[in-house]
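Two records follow; treat each independently.
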Amino acid sequence: MGRWWMVLGWVGLFWAQAQSVRVVAASDLQYALPEIVQAFERQNPGVRVELSFGSSGKFYTQIMQGLPADIFFSADAAFPKRLEEAGRTTPGALRLYAVGRVVVWVANAWAQQGLDPRRMGPRVLLDGRVTRVAIANPVHAPYGRAAVSLLERFGLIRPVREVAWEEMTEGVAAYYNLSVLRQGKPGFEFVYGENISQAAQLALSSTNVGILAFSIARSEAMQRAGVYWLAPLSSHLRLEQTYTILRGQDRPEVRRFYEYIATPEAHRVLRKYGFLLPGEKPEE
């Protein structure tokens, strides 16, 4: 009898493990993806989705080093494509799930003193009071790269050294001329979050200004604390957000969640947080 209970226990443990889906995802999904998971799990009571959030670049590196995961959601197309080229993904599984948007966010206290990005756009950063701006680290965060490209597009910074994003380890100021942003100020610096979620926390807690993901700016906490200007898609690096199933992980429950992302129910949540869906055009 004891032996049979032991066997049944091992079967139960195997079944529980087989019915879990391990997801690593870009931090701009920290509000949208849990809502999607909640709806998915209601429809699939035997499946549990485990979520981990971070920067797309760091997850790419960790996956290449053997991170145990089933599905990878990136904030851009480049990192999943590199995994695909390295043979680390399920063939044919690379898929666009959304296009990301970028905002300039300012805390209410400053907006009420005239620093309102809804009226000033990115030129709000020229005000003498703005000496620190929170962004995600462009070395490994696509939203950090989009922030840098936005500033360059509006003439607020100018490149002085050509370098790949991954090599910008000395900070933006080492590769771009920031004289426009520094003019008339005692100083100016970027404050870096390891991912776009941490950049938002820095904007909330210390800098009062950040260049952030629209999906995070639309969260209840950020809308309560500040206001934002939504950048046109054409004004920054395009964030073609893709996801894929990692090599050897195409199990039935993994495939079910992967396919669920393309359903109307999941699309409603993504749209709620400001993502553009595949094929959609922005109202600009």
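The next record belongs to a different protein.
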Amino acid sequence: MLRVHFTAEDFARIRFAPRPAPLQELHAALTTAVTQRGGPLFAPWRGRILRSLPAASGPLADLVPAGRPPSFLDVLGDTMADGFEQLRATSPGLVRAELERVYGAVPPPRWIRGLHAGDEAAWRTPQRAQQAAFETVLAPVWSVVQDLHREEFTRYALTVAEYGVAAALTGLAPGSRLHEGVWEWPGAAPNRDVCLNGRGLVLLPTFHHPAGPLLQDTPGHSAALAYPAGPGLPPTAGGAVVSSEALAAILGRTRLDALRLLAKPHTTTSLANALHVSNATASSHAAALRSAGMATTTRAGRSVTHQRTALGTLVAGAWPPYFTTRRSQRSPLR
């Protein structure tokens, strides 16, 4: 069981990663591929990934002897370049301690010894390997991962707004509970207690890790918890797994169309014309979106202008092409 201990300050410092972290998602995907997590449903994906990994990604295996990766690999940069920069900024002491932990008395490869010694040239080896693996494993589906992350961000934000932080946290992990400041994840292995002590927690959904949380707990930094999200299978290049039809089932078709139209400012009349509804109906949809924090209304004299908020954009995603199409269809180291 994983137990995450919160203080009042930690609850105030919980945040949701605004974008997926490429290196974290890559490590989750590679962990799933080589450990055979996910069972037979993952077998086709796993076989395809392992067959297609280029030789240039080989050094990554050197970093995970016996399946024990060093903690400094898990960084939350928004891009690969950001991730590499954060990785390289790891304190030399932590790098040495983690490499000694994962290798123990086993003789490491030469380039690993270079990392341990702080050799700048040695850092180019994992960077090249990670980039090669990313291009094969994640680049073809990265736009899908971004869409899924946006949807998960939105779901979390709306749950916090309507039901509170406790419900949002436990909703990330079915079967978990928050009791007296301790978030308990039954079944998470190994048994572990993490005390945040005011550092806060960053929540990061991952779409390539089918079970259990991946928790990064670096002293002096906010803890970061990657949790399995999405449809339960790795995304494919065919498009986002969560369809616009599912979103329409929640908001209603016309209200979803209104939200997408409000990417640009609309008066009530222009919104009604675009939706082919009455002004009263358009005003009602705008009011519902406004009450949910997804749109704003500005009045200037007798004119009223509606436009969606940042939350509304996260909910809507990048949908204008779909909207247009649908409307046209309808009409040793030491």
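Discussion point: The two ends are 34 Å apart (CA to CA). How would you locate this feature using only the token line?
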